[in-house]
User: Fold this.
Amino acid sequence: MLKGQVDTEDASETDLAKHDEEDYVEMKEQMYQDKLASLKRQLQQLQEGTLQEYQKRMKKLDQQYKERIRNAELFLQLETEQVERNYIKEKKAAVKEFEDKKVELKENLIAELEEKKKMIENEKLTMELTGDSMEVKPIMTRKLRRRPNDPVPIPDKRRKPAPAQLNYLLTDEQIMEDLRTLNKLKSPKRPASPSSPEHLPSTPAESPAQRFEARIEDGKLYYDKRWYHKSQAIYLESKENTKISCVISSVGANEIWVRKTSDSTKMRIYLGQLQRGLFVIRRRSAA
Assistant:
């Protein structure tokens, strides 16, 4: 009887162990199915855009995107303001330069016109003082009687010679001084016969003052057997025995401009002044 009872207990324990193992397998299968269902549900929510984790991360990405866009707009605004300021600054500078150039051009033209006016007035004054005339005197020709069979002569339509022009390279004071000298040397007119020596062309008297060779070619000055060019350092000596250190700033058609090294002021020297010895040029070292 005891043996039978032991067998029954062993059988019960075996059945219990077997039942527990079946429950474990069933529970494990259930957990697998639950996890699979949860993953499928999350995948469905992700595709629909309703997954909480997806929405959370998307919100963070959206904030980063908006922040970056805002920074880019701020940078664009700053760059635009900088470009606008530079544009206004350059525009003001261009307007100022244009106005300055316009004033400078007007002043230069006025100076040129005033100089031409002055030269014309000097020419008129010279003609009044010397009694010279700018008119071209007609040439007296002997007319022969035309024969009946000769053709009618055709009038000469050649162009009249242009009146001579005087170009003065001296100052008003120097011109007046020369005119006074000429008037002193000029002798009074006396009536004489056409065959007298007074009617023969006379050669002008040579000036007792020393004259220098001075000319301008190809933008360079040839003076006293030497060539001088722009930016060359020189000494300028005047008839008052003053010696000035200068630099040739420009070479024109009939004059040169020099700049004093002491105060940077400019002087204009005409070729006539150099030829007459009113100013003397000497070379000097540029150092």
